[in-house]
Amino acid sequence: MANRKIVLEFERINEVEEVLNEIGMDVRNAINIFLMKIINDQDVSFLFSKEQKTTIVPKEEINVEKHYRSPKVKRMTKSKAVALFKQEGINFDNYENVVFSSKNKTTDVYWSNPSFNHLKINWCLILNDNINNKLYLLEVAADSISEDVLIPRADQTNLIDLQIMYGDPTFTDMRSKYSFAKFVKKTISY
User: Fold this and answer.
1) Which of 88, 186, 177, 87 is nearest to 136 (CA)?
2) How many whole angstroms separate alpha carbon 103 and alpha carbon 110?
3) How many CB atoms within 10 Å of residue 4?
4) Which DSSP string corresponds to the chain?
5) 84, 76 in Cβ contact below 8 A?
6) Is the pLDDT of residue 53 over 60?
7) Which position has the higher pLDDT, 171 or 39?
8) Residue 61 predicted with pLDDT over 60
9) What pLDDT does residue 43 have?
10) CA-based angle 37:40:42, to the nearest 5?
11) What's the CA angle centered on 120, arms 153 and 145, to 5 degrees?
């Protein structure tokens, strides 16, 4: 029973990560925001508010085209992107070394927070252009970027505050002004 509970929790985390990736946020940030809300309010009643009316709609009844631009792909995720690149003959040594980022809904950036440890290993960055239904695969070789070139997050200095400009052929990080263009290996449409 305990193993089943762990599997279900991981499934929930994966589902939450996919949703949060769409808005350019990670689970850790979402949890921090949730905890800050509790601390600031000194209350958890917002979780059980009677004013908040939510309707649970079965997955089958959700109008995907209303929420996503492509009728072919409901929502691009890291695992779907990796599978598409594998179909194109790209092999990934380690799934954990793949960083996935979709175009942020509110700003024109691909926002991601990989660990600075990624710079010491071979890693991949997949950028999802969910407007034009394109995936960009960037392969970054170990030690090809110096740690002092990229900007850390203010609240978690072990993470890179990567904000690659959307629609920019040089794939430049807005924060550091570093171009990732030389790492682009493949572009595919979906």
Assistant:
1) 186
2) 5
3) 8
4) -HHHHHHHHHHHHHHHHHHHHHTT--HHHHHHHHHHHHHHHT--GGGS-SS-------GGGS-HHHH-S-SS-S---HHHHHHHHHHTT---S-GGGEEEEEBPSSSSEEEE--BGGGGGS-EEEEEEETTTTEEEEEEE-TTSS-GGGSPBPSS-TTBB-EEEETT-TT-BBTTT--B-GGGEEEEEE-
5) no
6) no
7) 171
8) no
9) 72
10) 95
11) 70
Q: Which amino acid is at 180?
A: F
| Residue that has been written with the tokens 């929502």 in this structure | 75
> Over the Cα atoms of the chain, what is R_g?
18
Q: How far apart are CA 126 and CA 136, in angstroms?
A: 6
Write out the two tokens for 154. 């203010």
